[in-house]
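Entry 14: structure prediction run for Membrane protein. Input pasted below.
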Amino acid sequence: MAGHVTAKLKRSLKAFAVVGLVGAVAVFLARPFVPFVPFGNDSGPLDTTPPAYIDLEAEDRAPSTPESGDGELEDIAHRPVESVLQIGSGEMLTELLSRAGIASGEAAQAAEAIFTRIDPRTLKAGQKVTITFAPSPYGFGRGPFRQVSLAADPVRDVAARWTGSDFESVETRRQVTRQVAHYSGTIKSSLYESAGNAGVPVPVILAMIKTLSYDVDFQRDIQPGDTFDVLFEGWYDTKGKLVRAGDLLHAGLELSGTQISLYRYEDPQGQSDYFTANGENVKKALLKTPVDGAKITSGFGMRNHPILGYSKMHKGIDFGVPPGTPIQAAGDGSVEMAGPFGAYGNYVRLRHGNGYGTAYAHMSRIAQGIHTGRHVSQGQIIGYVGSTGRATGPHLHYELLVGNTQVNPMSIKVPTGIRLAGRELERYLSHRRQMDQLMSSIPSATHIGVGAARLGRLGN
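Run finished. Output C-alpha cells:
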C-alpha cells in the first residue's frame, strides 16, 4: 500500500514539473527581444533595434554610394594632418620637432633644409611652426612626417618638404603690392598714441620719432591740438592688409603753429637721409636726448643734493628711464674713458668734433666692446641705464662738455649736418615738390599703388 502511494506521488510531481516548464517557456517566449549587454555598460537605455544585415560580398563587388556627409568624412580621413606649435624661449627648431614626436634624424635633416633659406638666429620665442604629417593608412591618427613650414617674414614662407629620400627647402611668396600710404591727425596726448590710434603702424611711428628727435623734445615741445602728417611705403596683400612697412618718406609736425617737415632723399650715389624743407640734413652733431622715452627728472644748475643733503651744482641733466634702457652715443666720436669712476659709477666719456664731449654716468653696465680709444657712431649703444655710484635710483646722468667744462645741454645749439647746395639742392627741391603733390593726392588713412619707376625715385 505504501509503495503504491509513493509511485502515484512521483507521477504527480513529474506531471507538475512538465506543466511548470511548459509555462515558463511560454512566458519567456512572450517577452520582447532584448539583446545581450556586457556587465558594466552604463551608457544609457538599451538599443533594441536589430543589427543591419551586411553583405560583405556585395561590398567587395562595388562601393556603395555614401549618404550625405559620408564623403566629407572619408575625405578628411585622407587629408594630411597638420599640427601648429610655438617655439619656446631658447628652444631650437630641432627641439620643437622632437617635441612633436619626430625622430631626431628627421628633425635634424628638416632643420638643416629650412636654414638654407633663413638665419636660425631670426627665430623668436612664440613664432608659429606648422608640422605636416601624411594621412594615416588606417583612417585615423597620423602617418609619417612630411613637412615643416614657418613664416620667414611678412612676405615669405619657407618649408622643408620630404621628397622620398631627403628634405628639400621650398620658398613661397605671398601676393603683395608695393604702395604708398598717407596718414594725418591731431595729437591728443602723445605722438605715439595718437598716430597709433589713427592706424599708423608701430615701426613707422618709431621711425618718425627717431627722425624728428633731432629737433623735437617729445616731453616738452608737443602739446594737445598739435598735428602730424606721415607718408610711407608699405607692402599690402590682395585684401588690402599691410604685411610689411617700408621706408618713411615724409614726417611732419605742426607744433603750436610751427611747421616741421622732413623728407627722405636719396642722392645720386645711392645714399639716403632726411632733410628739412630747405635742404638741411636733419642730423645734428649731437642727439638731443641719448635715451628713448626720456623724462627729465633733474635739470642743469644748483639743487639740493638728494643724498648729500645740501645745495650743490648739478653739472648735467638726469633722465628718468627704466633700468636696462639702452644708452646711445649722442654723436660720432671716440671713447675717452670707460669704466668705474667714483660717484659717477659705471661711466663713459666720449670726444666729438668741434671741441664737444659727452659723458654718461650711473650705468648698470657698459656695452661690450666699449673701451678707451674705440670709435663709436651716433646712435650706437654704449651702455645701459642703472643706479651705480652715488644714485638714489635708476637714471642716466648726461653731461655735455665744451673742452673740459660742463655746460647746459639744453642751452647749446650744436652744429648741424650737411646742407645741400647748387644742383644737388635743385634736385632735392624737385623731389620735395613730388612728395607734397603725392601727399595731396592721397586722402588720409588710405594707400595707393604707384608705378615702379616712380617708386624708385621715392626710395627703395
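Notes: The chain has three domains: 77-173, 176-283+416-460, 295-407. Will compare against the previous run tomorrow.
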